[in-house]
Amino acid sequence: MKQTPAYDQIQQQMRPGVITLDGFLGTDGRNLIDIINEDDGTVRQHGLTHEAIADRMAEFRDKGLAGLNEFISVDANFDVRVDSVRGKLPSPFGGPGMYGKINTTVVNKRLKEQITYTDLHIHFIRDHGFYEGKGSPFRLEPAQLIAVLELEQ
């Protein structure tokens, strides 16, 4: 797939200082569509879909909400903490909603690894297959996310 003028506009919205201080692209100089296509290939290599990954992320967020800023055990393998900060962010992809500044941290005790993501990440992944650009401070590497959330097929 080629970069379209619509993706050019979205990519401009992702630059630092437009929606967030750091933006969503990091040091990645590629076109947005190329970033998305590479990550899509990684997800497909693992036999998964972006929707399945986003569903698992939302599941941990929903379970972690019971802890109100404290880690809670979800099962023998996971601890989860959900923190909320005031405010909402729009998606650079457009659309009807604003996304709360909710951070979910999932600790995989078996792997001794953790990952932190936001509600905006869940939207990015579910609806657009976007994990942020390389070098972004909030980039989620699909393979690491799949491993930590124990989504391996």
Describe this protein's structure.
- The chain is an alpha+beta fold and 153 residues long.
- It has one domain.
- Helices cover 36% and strands 22% of the residues.
- The protein has helices at 5-13, 32-45, 50-64, 119-128, 142-148; strands at residues 72-75, 78-90, 98-108, 113-118.
- A hairpin with a 7-residue loop joins strand 2 and strand 3 (98-108).
- The chain is globular.
- The two termini are 27 Å apart.
List the helices and strands and how they pair.
Elements lengths: L4 H9 L18 H14 L4 H15 L7 E4 L2 E13 L7 E11 L4 E6 H10 L13 H7 L5
Antiparallel strand pairs: 1-2, 2-3, 3-4
The protein's oligomeric status is: single chain
- Widest β-sheet, arrangement of strands: 1-2-3-4
Domain unit count: 1
Q: Helical element count? A: 5
Q: Look at the structure and give the mean pLDDT.
A: 95
Characterize the main sheet. 4 strands, antiparallel
Number of strands: 4
- By secondary-structure content and strand pairing, the structural class works out as alpha+beta
- Helix/strand order, N-terminal first: HHHEEEEHH
Distance between the termini: 27 Å
| Helical fraction | 25-40%
Give the amount of beta strand, in percent: 15-25%
